[in-house]
Design a protein that fits this description.
seven-stranded mixed beta barrel, 16% helix, alpha/beta, 23% strand, 268 residues
């Protein structure tokens, strides 16, 4: 096999379930970045103590005559494109570093609710949305990565439009308005399908006005992690793509910055 062309992507995880082979010509395939960059515009929950901060430690030509640059960053776990580990809402369940890699790699199935979310910023993805998807595209298989497309990524990074408010602090948290996954749909999903993970192009898997975070709790009690603040889902086909979503491996972390990409099918 030539090293500059890969006929397939085959991943076997030591100590974990084997991820099926995926037909993917990485030279000719389109790779879509599903991740926002982290910078001063990155959005965080209104009551987060800070946002993303990058501090320059060194930059310039050294006494040895060569250029050198180095920075440090600080940020809350939950903000920007990130993963929620099950421990975030389920005591005793996996932290970021303990999530099996097999849950972070899988075939993508995009549930498009952009029309509903355009009419109702508090829309919650329903069991019927999943039923309709399966009538049209077949049953969501085991180990799938389900991506909920609400269309809200086009509002990023305008906090007032994306989160429903630019107000900071506890008061801002009460004013959040954006779509999410209905708890009944979350319960149906974990009871009837064995997905690897779920993602959404809003700030939370629960809708903005949730106070009980039921969808978080339902999913995480079954060890299904969530990717939040995903972007570019308009470029991902409803079926046929393959997602790789790898977080910073924070020991004991309840969440972490995430780099997620979708590998689109090669043209036939």
């Amino acid at each position: 096999m030539r090293l500059d062309r890969f006929a397939f992507l085959a991943l076997s995880l030591t100590g974990c379930a084997t991820v099926p082979r995926v037909g993917a010509d990485l030279v000719n395939s389109t790779v879509v970045d599903l991740t926002y960059q982290f910078d001063s515009t990155t959005l965080y929950w209104p009551n987060s103590p800070s946002g993303f901060q990058l501090k320059e430690l060194a930059r310039g030509v050294t006494p040895g005559g060569y250029f050198y640059s180095s920075n440090m960053f600080t940020a809350p776990e939950h903000g920007g494109t990130h993963i929620d580990a099950p421990i975030h809402f389920a005591q005793g369940h996996p932290a970021v570093d303990a999530i099996p890699l097999s849950r972070l790699l899988g075939s993508a199935f995009v549930i498009d609710v952009t029309a509903q979310s355009e009419k109702n910023v508090d829309y919650q993805v329903t069991t019927e949305d999943f039923a309709r998807f399966e009538r049209e595209h077949g049953m969501i298989p085991d180990n799938a990565i389900v991506l909920l497309r609400t269309g809200f990524s086009k509002r990023w990074p305008d906090a007032a439009r994306y989160l429903g408010t630019a107000t900071r602090g506890e008061e801002g948290a009460k004013l959040l308005h954006f779509p999410g996954l209905h708890p009944d749909a979350a319960r149906w999903l974990v009871a009837n399908r064995r997905i690897g993970a779920i993602g959404i192009d809003t700030a939370s898997i629960d809708y903005g006005q949730s106070t009980l975070f039921e969808s978080h709790r339902v999913l995480y009690e079954r060890d299904v992690p969530a990717f939040e603040n995903i972007t570019a889902l308009e470029r991902v086909p409803v079926t046929g793509a393959y997602v790789i979503a790898l977080p910073m491996k924070i020991g004991g972390g309840s969440g972490a910055p995430l780099r997620a990409v979708a590998i689109l099918p090669s043209p036939r």
